[in-house]
Specification:
By secondary structure, this protein is of the alpha/beta class. Helix content is 41%, strand content 17%.
Length: 139
């Protein structure tokens, strides 16, 4: 009887064993281009779920087009959430300088923790060439 129970324990333990994935192998770039509040909330939820599921993953959000309004001090309703993602979760957030020029937005109008890149699309291409996964965020 002991041998049968031992065999059953060994057989079932391997079935229920799961590899724990902390996300350390994952690098993901998110593209965000929407000025829509529902899409902005969707991005917040995506990032929250992403970092809760894979706390050691690397992530970067590239804001361009109308997505830039989400990271402007005067226009955003998500400043606190975005700051927490940067400071607590280590998510890098960058804004396209081409979009800034086109929309006549100065760096001082952005949330203070935002970084800029010369070309948002170029940043996404570079990340993908480096092996990063790509997600178009929002709705």
């Amino acid at each position: 009887m002991k041998k049968i129970l031992f065999f059953f324990f060994i057989a079932t333990s391997s079935v229920f064993a799961q590899k724990i994935d902390d996300g350390s192998k994952h690098k993901t770039v998110f593209q965000f281009v929407s000025g829509d509040t529902l899409s902005q909330k969707s991005l917040i939820n995506n990032l929250k779920n992403f970092k809760e599921g894979w706390p050691k993953s690397q992530a970067e959000v590239v804001f361009h087009g109308n997505g830039i309004f989400m990271v402007m001090t005067e226009k955003t309703t998500f400043a606190k959430e975005l700051q927490n993602f940067v400071e607590k979760d280590g998510i890098k957030m960058v804004v396209c300088e081409n979009t800034m020029k086109q929309k006549k937005i100065k760096k001082e109008q952005l949330l203070p923790f935002m970084k800029t890149v010369p070309m948002g699309i170029g940043e996404i291409v570079i990340k993908q060439e480096q092996g990063w996964s790509y997600i178009k965020a929002g709705l």
